[in-house]
User: Fold SGNH/GDSL hydrolase family protein from Sutterella seckii.
Amino acid sequence: MKTLFIAAGLAAGILLSGSAAALENTVKPEVTAPLASSPKVALLVGNSYSFYNCGVHTYLRGFMKAGTPKENMKTRLLTISSGSLSFHDMAFYLSPHEQDPYAKVKDGRLEHPMFDVVLLQENSAGATSAKRAPYFEKYVKLDAEIIRKAGSVPMVVMTWPKKDKPHEIKKLADTTIRIANDAKTQVIPVGLAFMEAIREKPELELYMPDKSHPSAAGSYLYGAVLYSTLFHRSPENINYAGECEKPLPPETSAFLRRIAWKTVTEFYGWKK
Assistant:
């Protein structure tokens, strides 16, 4: 089983850019070390936040192909529209099935785990709704246990607040981190990266007109944060503009890559 190796502040009331204090979480992540090695096969379980714009896995693949060194991680995306983690049968997903190219079976058993890492992306209200949060906590813990028993590493994706509710980022971030800490899983700080990008460049549209789902720029940022976290590597110098016939302007993609690495390094306390 793979395992995880387990400032500047306020000045005149203004959060200084580039400081760890600039991030909007107050609960600190407990699992902060990089993965022991670069994953080769990943599963991302979630909902429409992850499948918009041809899927965040296509953005992640774009970063992997254009980066140095080139990464060849395979990524399976399993999403349910408007779904919560409770909708997903994790044990079923991690079991061998006929014709599954990721499953090498001998005598009815897997010869090795199907996935190195499994990413859990909850419903957008999972961390902010008093009604939904207990289920978010319940299924992160249950799924993390199932994932570890299958020989994989569980990780939790922090989503983002709706466009017209930016004040919810603190609650969203702190709830996600607390739940992940209790389950001894790593958090991927996508929502914090969204808010950092909005803070620095509010005119950049990260949302679709519904004020909830990611625009092409939002999916690009999501993918850049995944790349930064999974491979412990900056995407800043990667010449890649996006997917799904929605390439971003060079200055926009460069900005989002910088924000992704800035957020990830500050969140985990990594050296740049």
About this structure: The first strand starts at residue 10 and ends at 11.
